[in-house]
């Protein structure tokens, strides 16, 4: 799962970097040369969709989405379990819709040879983020629900887990030491 985590993070980061660079260059081009880059809107909108979809998956993984945490954290025993399972089931249904309908849209775009207007990039490359986010979101939702059922999910525990996950991992080899 480390590779999947790396992939999720880097798709979001690279999408954001490209959006920022293309938008900045387009602003410079408009003000310095009074000419806009024709492809800038196309690439930023498509990458914004990619970044949003994969960012949602990262949010599920990190437990960063809004939810009725007050109810779950204050519920006891069986009620807590039911709330977690029902919440996860509803998320899985929504993500399955993204997976299925996004997959259908992807197949139709690929079959028709639909491309972006300015750059001619196959549209399905951008649309792939929708069913992929649905699939990865389902996996992350199941992981999240399993964690919530077996571990402490209080705000303090989640904050501590997020801090551990966000902290860079440096081993002895990176600082010149030996194992």
TrEMBL record:
Predominant place of localization: membrane
Swiss-Prot/TrEMBL keywords: Cell inner membrane, Cell membrane, Membrane, Transmembrane, Transmembrane helix, Transport
Molecular function via GO: transmembrane transporter activity
Domain spans labelled Tripartite ATP-independent periplasmic transporters DctQ component: 19-149
Single GO BP term: C4-dicarboxylate transport
A Pfam family reported for this protein in Swiss-Prot or TrEMBL: DctQ
Gene Ontology CC terms: plasma membrane
Ranges that cross the membrane: 12-33, 45-70, 82-101, 121-139
Compartment list: Cell inner membrane
Topological relation to the membrane, as annotated: Multi-pass membrane protein
PANTHER family cross-referenced by the UniProt entry: 2,3-DIKETO-L-GULONATE TRAP TRANSPORTER SMALL PERMEASE PROTEIN YIAM
Family of this protein: Belongs to the TRAP transporter small permease family.
Name of the protein in its database record: TRAP-type C4-dicarboxylate transport system permease small subunit
Originating species: Brevibacterium celere
